[in-house]
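Exercise: predict the structure of this protein bound to MU-OXO-diiron.
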Amino acid sequence: MNKTKLTDNIFMLSANIDHMLFESMWDVPHGVSLNSYIVKGEKTAIIDGIIGWDGLPESLYAHLKEFDITPESIDYLVINHIEPDHSGWIENFKKITNDFTVVMTKKAEAMLYSFYGETPMDTMIVKEGDSLDLGKGKKLTFHPIPNIHWPETMMTFEEDSKMLFPCDMYGAFGTIKDTMFDDQFTKEDRVFYEKESIRYYSNVMATFSKMTKKAIEKTRELNPFVIAPGHGPVYRENPSTIIDAYARYAEYASGKGKNEVTILWGSMYGMTGKAVEKIKTMIEAKGITVNDVRMPQTTSSEMVTNVFKSAGVIVAAPTYEYKMFPPVAHAIDELGRKKISGKKAFRTGSYGWSGGAEKDFNKIIENVKMKWDFLESVEFEGSPNEEAIKSIEHSVNTLCETMQENIIE
Ligand code: FEO
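Solution:
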């Protein structure tokens, strides 16, 4: 557990979690941090809970002692978001004391009891602009941002320090260890956290991109000096970096992207793989970055991240038992569920004795309402012959040209 003083009477407790699947499905090879914050005035509030705490009273006492706080002196639990990676500690905390007030939105109240039992708790229900004066100059205001990432979510703003606690918003994967603040980043750290924030956004937030834009508007109104999210580093040198990055990611979700093409592909015996090799060479010769995403060898997390950030996508998959090669079919389904739309795209693939992949593919994209701008597919029997390669080359050239209008870096 990292324990840090952020500013006068505002503290951060952060647990780094490795070797886990986030939401029990997303591989996080570089881990993730779960951040909690304590604001101390005459009254004390904890924002987003101490998730790295093992549930033992004595360890909570030890964590808080460093900030000269006892669990019994905590007056308010501010629950920005009920998802258990932020609120899951309440059950154990209730065993230590019941003398606290939970601060949350109306929508969060019903969820709080369904998740953590029927025993009544003192609650303070807040709506946009409501405030809580903690004394000694510390004042919290509350700002609901529904569907970031659940419908009950809000951001909390501390007025004296102009510090924003946006919970999932502005989060990133990647543990934080010694690089907790953006002003401590090395050049490599900046590259690392940019990658990890794209991975986090694409895996967790992409579906809610319309609401992300509203949360960005709200953030800009508040004009915070510091952004202290529930996951990843704290931005105090230049909070606009992460605000602008999130604005860009919201656009990636509707088709904009980097000057990159992701080849999302699978091949049983290398026939489709031969076409992929040709495609890769063609695109690289144009100076465009290629993300080689082979399924099922690539994790879903990596697959979604690469497609999400690319302006162009090529799907290459053969027919398998009259349908599309299942690992690629599942990937397409997942991308549709994430509501990633507007990508410039093209599909190719091999078949043996019968086709079927194209029909199956069209069914999947109709089912998940995938609004991508697809060029006409090129299918070929067995290994790609000269004619097939020529057609593929034509489509790849068109894709690389048309995607240029969607590029934002
Ligand atoms: Fe970090 Fe939606 O939980």
